[in-house]
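User: Can you help me understand a structure? I only have the sequence.
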Amino acid sequence: MSAVLAVPQLPPIQWQPLREEDMADVAAIEASVYVFPWTIGNFRDSLLSGYQCTGGWIQGELIAYAIVMTALEEAHLLNIAVASRWQGRGVGALFLQHLIEDLRKQQIEMLYLEVRPSNTHARQMYDRFGFRQLGLRRDYYPAVTGREDALFLGLNLGEN
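Assistant: Let's start by predicting it. Here is the structure, written out as tokens:
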């Protein structure tokens, strides 16, 4: 499972499975982009649990990662991030497109995720891909001033 996708303003991105030796880089990106980051232990546990752990590399540099849990015909996008210096250049959308295509090849029918209501950039991207709000998870995320709800979104992968 390795593919190279490119857009005019970006060098080619190579998507491939994450390995144990990538976990420190993953945790470093996580800590730099999230106020309440996952720990390196969370990422290692995901890898050991057999979750689909994918990274995106440009010229040998890890620039993005995603953790997806699959069961039967469903998948749950648990975590996705793009390194700060690569944000705003379409990497997140390319990555999500890659993940969706890969999940369709695995005959996954539904993709679920949670997103903070305050994360407007991510919400806009998910809207463009056709995700629909299925529910609300109250007090799901830690926040600087208590807790923040999560929008529970779903995408039917059988639809175009």
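Now, to help you interpret it: The longest helix spans residues 91-105. The mean pLDDT is 94. Let me know which part you'd like to focus on.
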